[in-house]
């Protein structure tokens, strides 16, 4: 209902990793049962995070998280994500978006469209660096997926249920997926619950006689637990009753106004984000956009912690590009608390110059 789907179907699990793993199994079985048995490859993006199971970790585009666990699952490919801050200087944001969509289309063509099952993406890369795509990106991705019969999985584990100032992250860009995955925001962390939501045409592919084995042969012990479901329903009710989605959008504007006072600081490359998922890319040189050294970035994080403000850094993503401060305060954030965040970051940036 919240997704605006006519006849959506839900498979419940207990974590975002499980929700994405479920989606991967679904897309492979779906294509097998709809006359495309070779469609098994799943494309994702560098810097994205999709989970910690073997398959979802393989789909994750953060190399340092995979050290010690290789070889990983076969059948996964990665393409570059949009990165407007570091795009070629001669490209507009829209042209950069088109360039990144072409990475997907070229990969599908080179691999053979008859072998590619799905493309998974976060509407906005979160822990990998708060990377906001150009406005044309998601609609063009949708077009390419439709053209080559590639299912689009939208990983809304982080961005779902108000985090970005919309109920769902994809609403900023006006295109929908074939499959959606949710977790964290469903119950605001009060219960382990997650969901994989599919369109009616995907669900129908799993109908058949018992001896045909078309059913989704996937069991989850705690999936659909009534307590988790009740907590999720109550949480969504509270989010709507207290207008927390609108509050996230309002607080985005308020925090950005405060952070923009530091825009001229030598270490501040870009301030970006949506709703209450915000980032500051730290650089040692504004012109060359050289990433700030890890030790200095980490010192800023620790300084904020000492002031009672918990920010994080996008560690374990790309060696040398762990220079983004990430803020994800609760949706109930008020202006006085936002002031604490801005003040702590401002103080930490000033001290980092010494």
From TrEMBL:
GO CC entries: cytosol
UniProt entry keywords in alphabetical sequence: Aminotransferase, Pyridoxal phosphate, Transferase
GO molecular function, a single term: pyridoxal phosphate binding
Stored InterPro entries: Aminotrans_3, Aminotrans_3_PPA_site, PyrdxlP-dep_Trfase, PyrdxlP-dep_Trfase_major, PyrdxlP-dep_Trfase_small
Gene3D superfamilies recorded: Aspartate Aminotransferase, domain 1, Type I PLP-dependent aspartate aminotransferase-like (Major domain)
Organism superkingdom: Bacteria
Entries under PROSITE patterns matching the protein: AA_TRANSFER_CLASS_3 (PS00600)
CDD domains in the record: OAT_like
Transferase found in the keyword field: yes
Family from the record: Belongs to the class-III pyridoxal-phosphate-dependent aminotransferase family.
Protein name: Aspartate aminotransferase family protein
Species for this entry: SAR324 cluster bacterium
Phylogenetic placement of the source organism: Bacteria, Deltaproteobacteria, SAR324 cluster
